[in-house]
Amino acid sequence: MERVFTFFSSYRGTIVLMTIYAVGLASATFIEKTMGTEAAKMLVYYSPLFIFLQFLLVLNFLLLLFREKWFLRKKWALLVIHFALIVILGGALTTHLFGKEGQVHIREGERSDRMVMYTSKGVQVERLPFELELVKFTLNRYPGSQSPSSYESDLLVHLDGEVREARVFMNNVLDLKGYRFFQASYDPDEKGTVLSVNRDVAGRTITYSGYLLLIIGFILIFFVPNSRFRTLLKQLKGVRKQARKVLPALPLCFFLGLFPSTVIGQESTSDTMLAPLLDDSLEVSQPMQVSPSVRVGMDAHHAALETALQNAVPVEHAARFGALPVQFRGRVMPMNTFSSEILRKLHKERDFEGLNPDRFLLSLFAMPRVWSMVPLIVVDNELIQFMYELPGSYAAYADFFDEEGRYCLLPRLQEAFHRPVNERSTLDKELINLDERVNIVYQLFNYSIPGIFPDPNDPTHTWYAPGEDLSHFPRQDSLFITQTFSLYLSEVGHAVRSGDWDKAGDVLWLLEAHQLKNDKAQLINPKKLRAEVHYNEMNIFGRCKVGYFILGGLLLLVAAVQLFRSRSWLTYASRVLTIAVVLIFLYHMFGMGLRWYISGYAPWSNSYETMVYIAWATVLAGLLFGRKNSLTLALATLFGGVILFVSGLNWMDPQINTLVPVLKSPWLMFHVAVIVAAYGFFGISFLLGITNLSLIAFTKNDAAVTSRVKELSIINNLSLLVGLALMTTGTFLGAVWANESWGRYWGWDPKETWALITVVIYAIVTHIHLAKKGNYTWLFNFLSVLAFSSVLMTFLGVNYFLSGMHSYGHTSGSVAVFLYIAAAFGLILLLGILAYRKRTVSKLSS
Questions:
Q1: CA distance 558 to 554
Q2: How far, rounded to the nearest angstrom, does the alpha carbon of residue 506 sit from its chain's CA centroid?
Q3: Hey, where are the domains in the chain?
Q4: Residue 772: which region, alpha, beta or left (left: phi > 0; alpha: psi -120 to 50)?
Q5: Is-above-0.85 flag for pTM?
Q6: Spatial CA neighbour of 41 closest among 594, 612, 648, 748
Q7: Under a CB-based contact definition with an 8 Å cutoff, are residues 325 and 337 in contact?
Q8: Model confidence pLDDT, tens digit, residues 282-310
Q9: What pLDDT, on a 0 to 100 scale, did the predictor assign at position 299?
Q10: pLDDT at residue 271 above 70?
């Protein structure tokens, strides 16, 4: 019994309990994937054993509180943080035992006072102490699309003989006698509303109090003199003083071999020999449907490509065309954005054979017959290339039709669509993606996209393409639309031959004037449209990526030499490079701000934007800790470049999208900003951990190495503490967002569960020094590296491999990335083993 008590009152017991807790949570997410949500709740989340495990964690803290005499030692930051966690667990238990959740369904003109609750015991109905009457339900959509922008329920509340008006919409809650009503859903005919209901005053109050205490505790940890963070800062000063007394004897070649300074670039393609111009290639009149009767060969591909390139539109006029406002995917954008997205979708490149997106698209509009034979549609899958006898990685539109004009993909596509989504093979998914690209080309050839002409009488503010059904327009407007666009393309064809672009420019001006005249909803914002064109052309994040790679590599070289020799010119070079990194960092921040201005929301709402933000946060963390050690800034800068490189991969979509209603919340902005910033600090710890393991494994165990390892380990620890504070705060800010948006601050969705797992794992790493057993330096650095896998799982793995609201399904590109990550962690495991053996041998020999 004494041994049990000793275990539960020890730091060792803390580490073991937290490890079991993290493993239990992780297993629950995979149980949910295979057996469903209810099974995960029954077997793990709401099981008596799991609740008992949380009780043991609280007990462990209380026993340590008295054993370590934290009150007497005035460990206020530590006490506030841990008491906050106990309060949060108490709030969660109160919600679990006494909270109620349900739904209220009301049709327009009807009343309801009944809340339907779906529990493990079945469906239950509870009567409310008031009645709600739905006056009107409104579903607002983004202009020209079916995508919802907001849901709104106009209500009358009948309470104690009085009637008052109320409105519920996404992120706007109705509080009434302890009940909270949230906009959840609506009827298909848009004549009824579904409100989610929550009654949890006590649980919510306790939990929110815990969140507030937690934030106060994290603030204290950075300012209270005897906190862990401040103690580490003092230790760092001492270690740096000691390091100056010892001349580092680290071989320069080791650093050059371990951290190569490379610049990621692209090989230039060789120039293409141009064939003679094909006759009548520029004749364009009415919208046409391209249905080739004969599959083309390589010679025809080559001739069509050379014709298209020879007759390309000049850059100046293409820029005017690119500035034309269009409507696509529910928002108004410049044609330049549309053409960029189309080219990226079809060809997976930023340009086509030297043609920028605007030149490419206008040429395609003007010469559809020629472009139907140009191999521009990317075909990644080699099996599909073989099955349909395609010429290679790129195929022409005409290649997908047989000699009788039949669509070659159709039979297998029908089989793929008939299968349930979760039963589709990789080949099925690749065929469906390829079909999407072919259909985009078809729509372009027939001028069915994008929307160019606003309909002033359309209640949804839809813009129409010249190839769409225009019968609802007045006859005069319908003729203007079809004839003007055809005239414009005709003038483009003549201008290519003559070199006189004045007439084409005049017709383009007519199109712009017509748009301004009929834009009754005032969707055209000239300043934002110009800003978006500049944003597209500047390629800010691509340039930042190159800058980070170059400067990070040079800074790493200087930092490595500084470890070997101390010279004034090295210090000067380091400062100059640091200033250059700051300038690139500010340019990076400018790009994020410009995207924010264009989209109208914070630029971290999807995977691409979040990766860009993580890169920024990583470099920020490097700048903060780089004052202590230039090697830290070098690693952070390089890692920022790597993250931007990943964000530019084809499976990351950089387009600016409209937001779904639930994402229009300031709580979401704070939640994502804080939690993703934590990833940057965790990334720094990951790199510092690898650096230390490498120093231990591949260098002599002398005073110089030991000093450097100690210094980098302390910086690693500081970075982990900042990351853990941000991660924990961000996770619970997400809980507040969820509670204020749909009435449940914790629902055990895999994304939020893995965020909690990440918090627990990094808490284990930051507490490992308390155990004081074995080789702490090796163990701490090794764990700080392995812990980063939980970040990758939270940010990427959940999205692609688990079920839940944040799951998107995986693509072949994403699977390849995860295979590379797995291989990298295999090498890291090998590095950790080598470092452990080296340290053990050194101890035995000494």
A1: 6
A2: 42
A3: 2-99, 101-199, 240-260+531-845, 298-485
A4: left
A5: no
A6: 748
A7: no
A8: 444 344 444 444 455 667 889 999 999 99
A9: 78
A10: no
